[in-house]
Amino acid sequence: MKKNKKYLSEEQKENIDLLVLKGHTLQGIADLYKCSYALVVKHFRIMKSNKIRVERITLFGKNESYYNKEEDYGKLPKYCYNDLSEQEKKIYKKLL
Question: Whole-angstrom Cα distance, residue 57 to residue 46?
Answer without folding.
Answer: 21
